[in-house]
Amino acid sequence: AMLRLRLLTWDVKDTLLRLRQPVGQIYAAEARAQGLQVQPEALGRSFREVYGAQGRRFPNYGHGQGLSSRQWWLDVVKQSFRLSGVQDEAALTKLAEKLYRDYCSSSTWELLPGAAETLSRCRQLGFRMGVVSNFDRRLEAILSNCNLRHHFEFVLTSEAAGFAKPDGRIFEQALRLGGARPEQAAHIGDDYSRDYRAARAAGMHSFLLRAAGQAEGPEVPPEHVLPTLSQLLTRIEK
Predict the structure, then answer these.
(1) Contacts 24+ apart (CB under 8 A), 64-69
(2) What long-range pairs does 53-61 form, CB within 8 A, spacing at least 24?
(3) Sheet of 205-209, strands arranged across
(4) Where are the domains of the chain?
(5) For a surface tag, which of 28, 104, 112, 126 has the fewest beta carbons within 10 Å of its beta carbon?
(6) Contact 206/187 with Cβ under 8 angstroms?
């Protein structure tokens, strides 16, 4: 059956863009530039622990709890280094501010295979396009710096929406912004619960980017799975 789609919404991290290096390596390189020796593996473990705890304590970048997303991130970076043994507060502040800025740079990110071509083709086919991402206010700058922003009519972050995926209200906002009913829209992302299942719960179509060799998650109908982004067009043009 032909899907009568008007609107495509996109996750960003690990769907269109991915970090060029693991977080631990990025942080360790910045520490080295400031004369500090910290092991990338230790930093990576510290970061995952701190990021998880911060997200539980202050969900969605502390939205509604009086934190700015910038402060939320500066705290995460500093605590990750503290947990890895860096005690110098002046160094911690400098590291955190530098890494917060660098995260917007195109040198931090790379496009996933097929991303640019697929987005261009979808626009040529006349789809309206938007981003729905659990991300902070830096996403606009990241997309611009990676030369992707022009593909999208809107960029809806969880920080701006006030809700994070899998909350259906972020998808409702996206549908309003894109001027489409749920059944006229499809969401593309790499996370089973936050992207695939959440969009379907909101009444939309959705496709799960699941690279070959990725740990198999829950069962998804094969026609909803994208081994690469380039497969999207064959799925929606049927």
Answers:
(1) 64/162, 69/136, 69/137, 69/138, 69/159
(2) 54/79, 59/164, 60/134, 60/158, 60/159, 60/162, 60/163, 60/164, 61/136, 61/158, 61/159
(3) 154-157, 128-133, 7-10, 185-189, 205-209, 225-226
(4) 7-16+112-237, 20-107
(5) 126
(6) yes
The whole model's pTM is what?
A: 0.94
163 Cβ partners below 8 Å, 6+ apart? 60, 169, 170, 173
Summarize pLDDT for 108-156 with one digit per residue, the tens.
999 999 999 999 999 999 999 999 999 999 999 999 999 999 999 999 9
CA gap 238, 234 in Å, rounded: 6
- Whether residue 38 contacts residue 28, with contact meaning beta carbons closer than 8 Å, is answered with yes
Distance of CA 127 to the CA centre of its chain: 21
Residue type for position 21 = Q
Q: How far is CA 54 from CA 57, 80, 143, in A?
A: 5, 11, 25
Q: Which phi and psi angles does 129 have, rounded to 5°? A: -135, 145
Rg, Å, the chain Cα set: 19
Pairing of strands 205-209, 154-157: unpaired
20-107 has which fold?
DNA polymerase; domain 1 (1.10.150)
- Amino acid (1-letter code) at residue 161: A
Q: How far is CA 38 from CA 41, 56, 201, 206, in A?
A: 9, 26, 44, 41
User: Distance between CA atoms of 222 and 107, rounded to whole angstroms?
Assistant: 34
Q: Return the pLDDT at 52.
A: 98
pLDDT digits (tens, 9 = 90+) for 83-103: 999 999 999 999 999 999 999
**Residue 19 bridge partners (DSSP):** 109
CATH of domain 7-16+112-237: 3.40.50.1000
